[in-house]
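Subject: ArsR family transcriptional regulator

B.,
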Amino acid sequence: MSLESSRRRLDDPAAMRAFAHPVRLALHELLMRAGAMSAAEAAREAGISQALASYHLRQLAKYGFVEQAEARDERERPWKVTERVQEWDDAREPEHSAARSLLEQVIAERALARLAEWGERRRDEPEPWRSAGGVSNIYLHATPDEVAAVGAAITELLEPLMARVGDPAAQPDGSRPVLLTQVLVPLPPTGSDD
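Prediction pasted inline below.
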C-alpha cells in the first residue's frame, strides 16, 4: 500500500465523530502498528474485552477505517487499516465544524496522555530514546498560506518514515513506533499586530 493511496480526506461528519472515539483510535493505532490483528489480539493489547473490541472494529469498518484482512487460518478474522493517513478540512457547515473540533480534541487528549506516560517511563529508557521525545514550543508570525505550507513541508519530510509503518522489512534495526502530533494554533492578534 503506497502512502499516497493510503490517505483519506475526511469530509463526512458522521465518520469524523465515529473515529473520534478513544477506544476506536486506540484500536486503529494497534492495527497500524501490527499490520493486522484479530479482535481477540487487539482486545488483549488494548486491555478491553473481545466483545468491546469486536464492536468498535465493526464501527470502524462501517465508516471505512478498517477492513477484514486475509485470514491466517479458518478460525481467525483479522482486521487491517484501510488508510494510514487521515486528513480533514474545516467547512462552514456547523455539523462538520463540530465534528472536526471533537475529533481534534480527542486526538489532542490522546497525545497528552501519551506524553504523560512517556514522562513516567522516560528515565527507564536507553539514553538515545530518553532525549528523543518531548515537547517544544515555537512561535511563528505567518500568513494562513505560510502555515499551510509549513504543515505540508512537515508531512513531506515525514513521508518516508510514515511509509515504514506498513512495511516491517523497511524498518531499520533500533527503530520503533513514534507518535508525532502536529498542532498549529493561530493565536488571536495582539494590539501590536494591527
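The chain has a mean pLDDT of 87.

T.
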